[in-house]
Amino acid sequence: MGVMRSETGVPSPAREFWDRQYGDESPSTPPPPPNAALVALAEELALVPAPRPRVSHALDLACGRGGDALWLAARGWRVTAVDVSEHVLDVLAERSRLAGVGELLDVEPHDLASSAPDTGPLDLVHASYFHATTDLDRDAVLRAAARSVRDGGLLLVIDHASSAPWSWNRHDEHPTVDDLWHSLGLGPEWTAVVAERRTRLAHGPDGRSATVADN
Predict the structure, then answer these.
(1) Phi, psi of 60 (to 5 degrees)
(2) Total-model pTM
(3) What pLDDT, in 10s, does the model give residues 58-113?
(4) Which of 30, 85, 99, 130 is deepest in the core (most CB within 10 A)?
């Protein structure tokens, strides 16, 4: 496995943090399910199965364990999955092969503070719970990715509006829907198709569950 370094030659703090978080992941462990909020929105917005006749291209930013990327690829999307952790991307690539969608799912390691994928026109840019834990201008990353969205395409951002009692960030303050929309600063050519605070039932360790909210 290669080592991602910043332009100064120092190992990326974000890479080190997320490699620790995903250190137990392996292709032999069950793949994660997609985020429930993504599934609901994708069905509501008729994103599944992937629009035809051409192959639709999605960018999954900060894809993590890859449940959303695998779910989209299984429904006909061509997906570029990006994360700072090369370890979790190696696992995702093998999981996609085992699931029979390896030809539809590409993985690219990027520390989004310093590099970004070059994808060409996109039908969907997706970021679920992309909350920066290091010195990263997340809004600038999302705006840059949005510039790759073709006319009629979608930028789909799902944020935590609250945290479950077991979450590592349970004490953090969370933005409102208006905070999220205004922070993106996308300009007049963009229209908010869905801009809502929605609740869902989250399941945690030891059989626990709690009602949480998403923007």
Answers:
(1) -105, 105
(2) 0.88
(3) 999 999 999 999 999 999 999 999 999 999 999 999 999 999 999 999 999 998 88
(4) 85
Q: Retrieve residue 36's tokens.
A: 């429930």
CA distance 148 to 205: 38
The two beta strands, 209-214 and 198-203, are: antiparallel
Instruction: Report the alpha-carbon distance of residue 98 to residue 166 in Å, rounded.
Output: 31
